[in-house]
Fold each of these.
Amino acid sequence: MRSAFGREDFLGDREREVAFVGRSNVGKSTLLNCLIGRRKLARTSRTPGRTRAVNYFLIDGNSYFVDLPGYGFAKAGKRERAQWARTVNLYFEQAVPRARVVLLVDGKVGATPLDVQAFDFLASLGARVVVVATKIDKLKKSQRARSLREIRAALKLPQDEEIDAVSAKTGEGLDALWRRISPRRLADSNG
Ligand code: GDP
């Protein structure tokens, strides 16, 4: 619906929103396309990390999915990292109070040190972070619980904090994730 590059571009009329963030190549664009149900809606950039804008997608008339830039792409220098932090910071300055963020972690790769940093940074900005493991189809059923346990441990999540596991490829877990972050749920929790 709209791309924001700087402070003046952010949408000011949002009531409900959920933002998506994750390491470059984690499967964010593919997942957003699945959730929104329209292929090629989230722009997939050929050069990982190229997309610096914050993209808003209108869901059900009055709620938004917000596509935050990916982080941790190859060859990212200090400048790119600062740029990512600046963009995310700007977004949170104007987001609804305690906005909900879906942090995507690759189910096969696990939580990298950059994922841990991103999680801590988001939490420090006051976001409510929902952790979601992506590409779960790459893991055998027998490996999944362990992968989720390791992600939980790396991010120091409480035992009772749920981690959704999804696959955009097979569709597994998408209904459960949708229920967790649906506009109705947001309406209940964001006021
Ligand atoms: P982004 O950089 O986070 O937006 O990642 P993309 O959505 O562009 O996906 C990166 C790569 O992972 C692409 O080659 C996708 O086809 C692949 N991918 C995305 N989601 C899945 C998934 O659920 N399962 C598998 N096996 N591959 C996926």
Amino acid sequence: MERTYVCDIEKSAETTLLVRGWVHKIHDLGAITFVHLRDKSGIVQLVFDKGLEESLRLEMCIEVQGEKVENEKAPGGVELSVRALKVLGKAYYDTLPFEINNHKVSAALETQLDHRSISLRRPKTRAVFKVQEEIVEAFRGYLKGLRFSEIHTPKLISSSTEGGSEMFTVNYFERRAFLAQSPQFYKQMMVGAGFERVFEIGAAYRAELHNTWRHLNEYISLDVEMGFIHDEFDLMDLEEGFMNYLFAHLNKACASELAMYDIRFPEGLPRIPRIPLSEVQDILLEKYGKKSPSGNIDAEGEILLSQYVKETYGSDFVFLTKYPAAKRPMYTMPDGTIPDMTKSFDLIYKGLEITTGGQRIHDYEMLKANIVKFGLNPEDFSFYVNSFKYGMPPHGGFAIGLERLTMKLLDLDNIREATLLPRDMKRLEP
Ligand code: AMO
């Protein structure tokens, strides 16, 4: 007999069905016992007559054959009256580390992360990763529809891409290598190598000494790079289009998961405001008495700015434009009209930076000169710089932090809740 997934029980034409999964809940009423069986698609109620259920323990894996019976009180409106039970995976614990079959989890986040193979079984926790999976699906679908090609680039690299000292070092035979902070150089190179438009979904590594609610040391970067652009506003248009596509996609693909979080996304977003950084700093000072660090805004500034933009424009998103050259990496295109400014931007969503992007320098001589201006040696990046000798189109791109986006979409408090197996300053396991 073939297995039926829980989500297909209701519409199945069969009267006897075989299901497999985990024992989610046991409710012993004496003469009969109700058991909730959980598989990857949902939960179904099983009804056991006295005797058959005696060997059951929470979370063991079972296979059951049963008759389908309508019962409006059961989850999904149907239950299975059990005829045969087979235990597929025994349980070997004294007590579970914490309960996962209640609406709320009592365990602290760190305890949940310590026991990830248990905490992820909780439907509401797993829902986060269904949403995350669909964000990736939407990213891929949206970009492929616009002739972008998916690429995979090395994560073991020889030099920094983003500047700063936030690199993990690796022993690479007799040499020192680094874990990639981003696919920045390679995505640019692939634009020039004839791909024109590329994207990558891959791990990025930051050896940042930040143990905060919004930093990871390994995260998934949704990277985009596009050739033959006019300026950085083409990139903002592209990302704005993606956000609209994403919201519509998630409403459709994750309706039940979003319902668990009481979320439904607006479709047809209000136009995302685009405000130069210096103006934002003035607004923060005038409206909230908030002083910003030179050439940027801080985490509190991001929250206040989002509050202002929501009240003024009704938008949860805001693009910050025109960052000073001193605050951006050496590959960033100067603004050209405003001295010492660049054609770069950040996207803030509900009080958190989720994206950095911008137009890049595409002229070989200009790139070399800018690298020198940054006090760096172009020869240290020769494979990258040399690729600009052979005709590089005007181009630019951006990168979205997948976990940050997931966290904010679901209004989670900590980025670790949106990470399957987080790596932070203290955590290298599980
Ligand atoms: P940036 O360094 O700003 O830009 O990173 C882009 C986005 O990645 C996410 N992010 C992080 N998420 C979690 N933990 C971290 N430690 C972390 N660091 C960054 C954020 C951030 O907005 N090469 C450029 C992008 C580009 O211009 O194309 C870059 O990597 O969401």
